[in-house]
Amino acid sequence: MRGTLMLTWILIICLSQVAVQSQYYSKTRPYHPRPVKVTNLHFFMHETAGITAVQVAQANITSNDNNSSVPFASLVAFNDPLRTGTEPDSKVIGNVQGIALLSRMNASSTQYIDFGFNTGRFNGSSISVFSRGEPGLAVAGGRGKFMMATGVALFNPIIINATNVIMEFNITVVHY
């Protein structure tokens, strides 16, 4: 009992000396968050079926009740140019790459899209979108000037026919 009591007092004295003799390894610096930037982008995606958008997989459906132009469970990969206007000869500012899982049940799709820019002040930057194919797509990040971006990408179909699709995009991005 006496040995345990003596050991306890020695430990208390040693621990109090450690707290008195120790110092922090660096001085505390105040936190200064980077300012948040909001960028509004407007451009057009030009897609050509079979050339810039290709169906890469489809579910094996045994029944032939597929009355939709979009088959159930189709996986489409695309690499489309981003342009400044709706004309086919308008200036190319980048490209959009991604995949879309299409469903004929409710005409919706789940999409992963990466808008890459190769001209102007956003050269080398991209915006990543991962969302359902509703009019408002969720911005889920990016790289370059859009690192850790959030926001919304609104799209409006301009031309949709058997071979061509032109979509207008208005993207509001919050980034650092």
Automatic annotation (TrEMBL):
This is Dirigent protein. Its main location: secreted. Belongs to the plant dirigent protein family. Homodimer. GO terms for biological process: phenylpropanoid biosynthetic process. It holds the Pfam family Dirigent. Residues 1-22 form the signal peptide. Keywords: Apoplast, Secreted, Signal. It is found in: Secreted, Extracellular space, Apoplast. It comes from Gossypium hirsutum. One of its GO terms (cellular component) is apoplast. Dirigent proteins impart stereoselectivity on the phenoxy radical-coupling reaction, yielding optically active lignans from two molecules of coniferyl alcohol in the biosynthesis of lignans, flavonolignans, and alkaloids and thus plays a central role in plant secondary metabolism.
